[in-house]
Structure formats: structure tokens, C-alpha cells
């Protein structure tokens, strides 16, 4: 890329849906097969050419920074045993990117978490990736969003068509078609609308490419739904002004923010792995046949 784009990963949520597992373990560190969810997100940013990552932390989230730090004792032990495969996996997370951390302080919503990145991001465009949404590494999304932002200069958000009965779980976009079937113009945004009030079934999923002007908007954004500073409200102001584009994602997405979907994500990713799929596929078929 022509400039050094930074990525911001908000990870300050309490993870109450996964209690008691998240009483002492950040939800972003819950394993998806054999890697914590947040590592998949960092790997996605790196695959898109981003090597500077800022993670927004909350209280009791030190496990996240520890995961991306080196562990000399463990590495030395594995090296002495000659277990180079495990050693490479341990060092991989440490060497992934230039990773920084900042605390959100009081949890005031996603918009507030993004605003906390202002000092680190500066005057450059940047990507925001939410850890609840895992995008399959075989499907392109962030690269397309960065390209659309660079070409248009506009904020770009990721959209996905969902069942209208589920739209109340998401931010929802009103859209107009463009010449590209995978890109739409976003004319309005509503946070978690009722089915009957939703302008479409295009849900906002957790990927954004933002320009630094978003910080000025977030600074004056009042608390909205849930008493929190909503990123959706700031994006609505942009959509009504200079404009926002949406990249429609039609690939594989795994929602790890819901308990049932988290389990599905583990199964879906595991069966596609060379080291696990051969054993799991026939077992799953037999298990399902007995239900």
C-alpha cells in the first residue's frame, strides 16, 4: 500500500453472554479451535497489508497483551525439546505485527472505543475490525474495502444480507445501487431497528475503513441507543453528508459473539482443516444421524 494504514481492534467489552467463562478470561481470548478469536482478526489485518495494530483494552484484559508478547521460558523449553512446530506457532502471534494497546477506561460504547484511537491513528485513514466477526481467510473483504476507500476517499463499511427476522441484532443500512454489484451507496443507518422499521436487510458487520474526520464527529456525538456513544450514529452523519460506501460481503463469516454461533464457528473452521477435517467429518455425520 502507498501509505502505512493502521488497524484498530476494540476489545474492551465485558463478554457477559459467555459468563462464567469470561469472568477471568477476555471473550476475545476464547479459543476458536486452537487460536484465540482475536488472533484471527489480527491475521486478517496483516493479510490485507496492515502491520500496525492498536487493540483497545478494558479492565482485566491483560491476557490479550500477554498473548501477543514473547514467552522466553516456553520458547526455550520447546526449542530444547526440538518441538519446532509448536515453537513456530507460539512465536507466530508475537511476530505477526507491530501491536499496541490502549485502555478505553469507562466503557461508553463502540464509538467511544474508536475515539480512543485518535492519538495513535493521527491524520491517516484506518481500519476498524471487531473481534466478534471472523472473516474466513479464504474470502476477500478488507482488501476490497481499502481499495474502495483509496479510490473514492469515502468511508467504507462492510454489509451483509441477513434474514429480515435477524436485522434487529445489527446496525442496518439504507442503500442505493452503484455500477459495481458488490458496492452500494449508504444513504442512512439505523442501530438495531425493529423488523418493520428496517430500511433493508443489509446488516453492518464488523469491518470499517474510516477517515480521520470521524474523530471530530465522535467527539460531539451524544450517547444513543443503550446510553452509549454509537459508531453507527457518527456514520449516519457521514452518510447524510459527504457519503459512505458499503462493500457487500458474500463470503464466509463466523459470529463468535453468540454462544451457539461460536460453537458453529469452531465446527465450520475445524472441518476445513487438513489436520482435523478427516477425523471430524465422519464423526459429525454419525453424530447428526443419531439426533
From TrEMBL:
Catalytic activity, reaction form: alpha-D-glucose 1-phosphate + UTP + H(+) = UDP-alpha-D-glucose + diphosphate
Domain Nucleotidyl transferase, first and last residues per copy: 6-269
Superkingdom as given in the UniProt entry: Bacteria
One function term, GO molecular function aspect: UTP:glucose-1-phosphate uridylyltransferase activity
Keyword Nucleotidyltransferase annotated: yes
UniProt signal peptide: none
Keywords: Nucleotidyltransferase, Transferase
Enzyme class: transferase
Family annotation (InterPro entries): GalU_uridylyltTrfase_bac/arc, NTP_transferase_dom, Nucleotide-diphossugar_trans
Keyword GTP-binding: no
EC number: 2.7.7.9
Family of the protein in this entry: Belongs to the UDPGP type 2 family.
Protein's name in the database: UTP--glucose-1-phosphate uridylyltransferase
Amino acid at each position: 500500500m502507498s501509505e502505512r494504514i493502521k488497524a484498530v481492534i476494540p476489545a474492551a467489552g465485558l463478554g457477559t453472554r459467555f459468563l462464567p467463562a469470561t469472568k477471568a478470561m477476555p471473550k476475545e481470548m476464547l479459543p476458536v479451535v486452537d487460536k484465540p478469536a482475536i488472533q484471527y482478526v489480527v491475521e486478517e489485518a496483516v493479510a490485507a497489508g496492515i502491520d500496525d495494530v492498536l487493540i483497545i483494552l478494558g479492565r482485566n484484559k491483560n491476557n490479550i497483551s500477554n498473548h501477543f508478547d514473547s514467552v522466553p521460558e516456553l520458547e526455550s523449553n520447546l526449542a530444547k525439546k526440538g518441538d519446532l512446530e509448536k515453537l513456530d506457532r507460539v512465536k507466530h502471534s508475537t511476530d505477526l505485527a507491530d501491536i499496541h494497546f490502549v485502555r478505553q477506561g469507562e466503557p461508553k460504547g463502540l464509538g467511544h472505543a474508536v475515539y480512543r484511537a485518535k492519538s495513535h491513528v493521527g491524520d491517516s485513514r484506518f481500519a476498524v475490525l471487531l473481534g466478534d466477526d471472523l472473516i474466513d481467510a479464504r474470502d476477500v473483504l478488507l482488501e476490497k474495502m481499502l481499495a474502495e476507500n483509496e479510490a473514492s476517499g469515502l468511508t467504507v463499511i462492510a454489509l451483509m444480507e441477513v434474514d429480515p427476522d435477524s436485522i434487529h441484532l445489527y446496525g442496518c443500512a439504507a442503500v442505493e445501487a452503484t455500477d459495481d454489484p458488490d458496492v452500494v451507496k449508504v444513504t442512512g443507518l439505523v442501530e438495531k431497528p425493529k423488523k418493520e422499521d428496517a430500511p433493508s436487510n443489509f446488516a453492518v458487520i464488523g469491518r470499517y475503513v474510516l477517515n480521520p474526520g470521524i474523530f471530530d464527529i465522535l467527539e460531539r456525538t451524544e450517547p444513543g441507543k443503550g446510553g452509549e456513544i454509537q459508531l453507527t450514529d457518527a456514520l449516519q452523519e457521514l452518510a447524510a453528508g459527504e457519503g459512505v460506501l458499503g462493500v457487500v460481503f458474500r463470503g464466509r463469516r463466523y459470529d463468535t459473539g453468540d454462544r451457539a454461533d461460536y460453537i458453529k464457528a469452531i465446527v465450520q473452521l475445524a472441518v476445513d482443516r487438513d489436520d482435523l477435517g478427516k477425523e471430524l467429518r465422519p464423526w459429525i455425520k454419525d453424530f447428526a444421524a443419531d439426533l
